[in-house]
Amino acid sequence: MSRTINPALHRKGLLITAIGGLSLSFDIPLVRSADGEVWSVLAVRCFSTFAVAILAWGVLRFALGKRIALIPGWTGLLIGLCYGGNSLAFMLAVFNTATANVVFIYAFTSMFAALLSWIFLRERPSNATLVTMLVMVGGIGLIVHDGLQSGNFFGDAMAVCAAFMVACAITMSRAHGGDLGLVPLATSVVPGIAALLLLPAGGLAIANPGFILFDGLIMIPLAFWCLATGPRYLSAPEVGMFYLLETVLAPIWVWIVFFETPTVQTLVGGTILILALLGHSLWQMRSKARAARADVAAEFPFSG
Question: Which pLDDT does position 1 carry in this prediction?
Fold first, then answer.
């Protein structure tokens, strides 16, 4: 039986997910605005997010009576460690390469997830997905080659690692099938502890801590919650399109505030990535809509 789309719920999903993508786009500008040493910024950001996770878990469990686990079992812990590795690699990327490089490369997350699902979950990607992956590899190749020329290869490599780690977490979450909404927030304590151990001799070094506190306490939890809630009302391709808001908007915010202009080669590679992902998402949405209409026609052959 086809799933009936409720227009009101669909609009609600679009609003929630758009808020999530927009919130996520401010992450890098807030990190940059804090003007701090990398391990100091990572520690404050992670422990702030962890505090929100504990507060949310306490409210859900004790005030609302919902028995929800912060980290459900060993699989949940492994998923959380992948999210923690993502946070660590992402922060190193932000501090070691251009913002445009980070977000453009990070956009490859969905394709990494498709590849991992094919290998471990036996979910073969469609031919369109495989073609899109090949096109995106070309775009990332341009950006990484530009990083080699400009001396930002380490930062670009960390962006690739961050995308791969979050794709691993998404793939394992699909296999797990349980409620993992608090896992990325709760396990942020792991990279936070690692950052504490690597702090400079003088301790925390952040010129404007208010920016990173606002990021860790408000923007990151809001983004994760909205983007995790979106699939309740929207299809996966629709939700995936809102992740592109960070890819498109973060370099704009950084350009406006810090006057950091991407190189031509990075812009070309990023444009290839965005167009490939956008075209793939639109194709998936159209295919699903066509399949739904076919299901309705098969179920009610004499209607209309």
Answer: 41
Tally of domains in the chain: 1
Amino acid type, 86: N
Structural domain includes residue 133: yes
The token pair at 265 is 């080669």
The answer, as to whether pTM is greater than 0.90, is: no
Is residue 16 included in any domain, yes or no? no
Report if residue 224 sits inside a domain: no
- Domain residues for the domain of 167 are 73-177+263-304
Average pLDDT score, the chain: 82
The three-point CA angle 110-232-131 to 5° equals: 25
Beta bridge partners of 206: 36
Domain contains 53: no
- Rounded to a whole number of angstroms, the CA Rg of the chain reads 20
Question: What are the angstrom distances between the C-alpha of 103 and each of 87, 217, 238, 280?
Answer: 14, 22, 19, 18
Residue 6 pLDDT grade (very low, low, confident, very high; cuts 50, 70, 90): low
| Residue carrying the six token digits 């969905």 | 110
